[in-house]
Design brief:
277 residues; mainly alpha; Rossmann fold; four-stranded parallel sheet; globular
Length: 277
């Protein structure tokens, strides 16, 4: 079982919820990220991700890529041992190489975590940081070097989500998609869907974790940023947001609300002046 999702999409919370279900993902309690802590394995994933950015995700990986990944996967399983029947990992850069994972693990299942890209655009991650090797290569590939960070992060999110969606189109039965927003607003129902997909029961430990750590206030955090910056980020990803229905209909952008309030105020002023006249 592999947790897939762009960094800062809520994969950390999902990782710890899965650990609370009794599944092993190689995370350690003293490291809040929930990432697997086998550094050999994560470095191998990073190297494969760096080399794959300019290649279509639909292509079969080379035998060399699969052998390289399998060698480090075997080492990871030795590091993880003893492990129960339910095991996997969470490391966001894996999102860039699902074709390699599928070739090495044909029976793998994927938990695909999506989050409103406008939230992700105002966070910092390896894949949108021009000072990091992978981030610089990805941004250069997208022609985003030198752009404002919120635009870079938006372009990175859009590229990665669209890339994985093309993979999912040919592996749909192996992928369960959930959203950060649904996890925040209906944690038990959302995790219940995950458990049915993985064929494991919901545990009291997992219920307790969700009760303690889920924070609905983290939905639509992009509203805390300047509306022009939000508009710039949204322009980059508007097609993907609409296609995946990630823009909640019940939420209104702060700048939209301000415009409506301003128009309403102007309307009241006109009525008042007419009445006085």
């Amino acid at each position: 079982m592999v947790v897939m999702g762009r960094g800062h999409s809520g994969t950390r919370v999902l990782s710890w919820a899965l650990e609370a279900l009794g599944l092993r993902l190689g995370a350690r309690p003293e490291i809040p990220s929930g990432d697997t802590q086998d550094r050999r394995f994560t470095r191998a994933i990073m190297r494969l991700a760096e080399k794959s950015l300019h290649l279509p995700i639909e292509r079969p990986p080379t035998r060399g890529e699969v052998r390289y990944f399998c060698r480090h996967l075997d080492q990871y399983l030795e590091w993880l041992a003893p492990h129960p029947a339910g095991w996997g990992w969470k490391f966001p850069e894996t999102y860039l190489i699902p074709n390699v994972v599928a070739a090495a693990l044909p029976q793998a299942r994927y938990l695909h975590m999506l989050r409103d890209g406008r939230d992700v655009a105002f966070k910092n991650h390896e894949t949108d940081n021009p000072n990091r090797r992978l981030g610089k290569r990805l941004l250069k590939h997208l022609g985003a070097l030198g752009r404002p960070h919120h635009v870079q992060a938006a372009m990175s999110w859009d590229f990665q989500v669209r890339r994985f969606e093309r993979f999912r189109a040919t592996h749909d039965s192996a992928v369960h998609t959930l959203t950060f927003e649904s996890l925040c607003t209906d944690p038990l129902g959302t995790i219940g869907g995950v458990c049915r997909f993985l064929e494991v029961p919901v545990t009291d430990e997992c219920r307790g974790y969700l009760e303690r750590h889920i924070n609905p206030a983290k939905v639509a955090q992009y509203r805390e940023n300047p509306p022009p910056h939000v508009a710039e980020a949204e322009a980059v990803m508007s097609g993907t947001l609409a296609r995946l229905r990630l823009r909640p209909k019940c939420l209104m952008d702060r700048h939209q609300t301000a415009n409506l309030n301003r128009d309403d105020k102007r309307g009241r002023e006109k009525i008042r002046h007419k009445t006085i006249g």
